[in-house]
Design a protein that fits this description.
Layout: E1 15-19, H1 25-34, E2 40-44, H2 56-72, E3 78-80, H3 83-96, E4 101-102, H4 108-114, E5 119-124, H5 126-129, H6 132-141, E6 146-151, H7 155-160, H8 167-182, E7 187-190, H9 199-206, E8 211-213, H10 216-230, E9 243-247, H11 251-261, E10 268-270, H12 271-274
Parallel strand pairs: 1-2, 1-3, 2-9, 3-4, 5-6, 5-7, 7-8, 9-10
Amino acid sequence: MASLNYDWRDPSLPIGALDSGLGGLSVLREIRKALPLEDLLFACDCGKAPWGDRPGSWIEDRVMKIAGFLTAHRVKAIVVACNTATSAAIDRLRSEFPFPVIGIEPAVKPAVRMTKDGVVGVLATTRTITSNRLESLIERFAGNDRVIPVACPGLMEQVEAGEFHTTKTRRIIEKYVGPLIDQGADTLVLGCTHYPFLADEIQAVAGKDVVIIDPSPAVARFLVQRLTEEGSLRKAAGRTAVSRFWCTGNPDDRTETLQKLWSPEVRMESLEDAWPPLRDAL
């Protein structure tokens, strides 16, 4: 386990979060709602995204390098706001760092509880769909219900481009969601953190009676629980919480979408300039 040169239980320290791209902001916004006093640091690998079709060892290496950047900023917890990264690297992260490491997984268990017709669709990246973690979730919780995993190449890229309600985005969603509805799915799990930003479009394609499950609020609640257990929640009011954002690639290319998803006042900073180990070649 890594030896940190700071007291990670200090309540004044920030919370770190990471993702392959901007989708992790769907988790971060739930964290901000639940923890309005906390400073938040978000680092994403837009320059190398998407991760969903990358080898697991490559993803693990990238996650560990970004985690190194966050620990250099003395975080008291890391949220892996990415299903793909959780599958590939959560065990390594938890073995390396003593502070809470929170991951995210497709919400199969609540979906099975909520389905009325016994058919659940899981929308995710190729890496998540083929992961042992998803297979295990289905084996543990599906019971007699049918869980249909669907890989959705292209959806993440639409979010990264800020194309939430375009004709192209609707057509991609129809390609993946339409067959699930035809097979009787009445519950859809958003198994990639980019997809909540397309929830309105997914709902429109699926129909108003189809339940769509976003696991992000549950991740925020679990983070609150773990920080409470460790005694590291920030309780002092009277200050404005800080939110900072870094990405690989050209930060100017991502700032406009970041401002749409977070607020007009924020800007993206260069992760590679701040943390040279991330300048590695593909």
